[in-house]
Amino acid sequence: MRIGELARRAGTTTRALRFYEAQGLLTAPRTANGYRDYGEDEFRLVREILTLQAAGLSLDDTRPFVDCLRTGHDAGDACPASVEVYQRKLAEVDACLDRLNAVREGLLTKLAGALARQPGPCGVEE
């Protein structure tokens, strides 16, 4: 299939596919006249990349998954390097959640203090 059809089927743009190619994530077999001629394997790689990016992984994070599929595995996360990416990304998310929870607790404390200083229904501080 040509690049436009692959982009349409995968739900992305031809520009993105060319970028993936430039980054070494996607190879473009060429026909005799120089047109890119993608097959189902390339479609599968692009879908894997898009799914992983939708889950919060960077384009560079998708590399081990693509490599895993290229080696013949049925799933991009069947290889240890892919599992390591999941573990690292989860640690990053957990650290962000910890920071957000600390900010939330601080805001709750500030709000409680501000509410305690508000006048009561009769206009007198309680």
- How many β-strand stretches? 0
Order of helices and strands: HHHHH
Rg, alpha carbons? 24 Å
Oligomer type: single chain
Helix content: 55-70%
Number of helices: 5
Shape: elongated
Class in CATH? Mainly Alpha
Low-confidence stretches: none
Distance between the terminal alpha carbons, to the nearest Å? 74 Å
User: What do the pLDDT scores average to?
Assistant: 94
- Any idea how many domains? 1
Q: Could you give a short account of the major beta sheet?
A: none
Find the CATH topology: Multidrug-efflux Transporter Regulator, Chain: A, Domain 2
Class per helix and strand makeup: mainly alpha
What is the CATH architecture annotation? Orthogonal Bundle
Descriptive overview:
This protein has 126 residues and is mostly helical. It has one domain: Orthogonal Bundle (Multidrug-efflux Transporter Regulator, Chain: A, Domain 2), CATH 1.10.1660. The chain is 61% helix and 0% strand. It is built from five helices and no strands. α3 packs antiparallel against α4. The longest helix has 37 residues. It is elongated, with a radius of gyration of 24 Å.
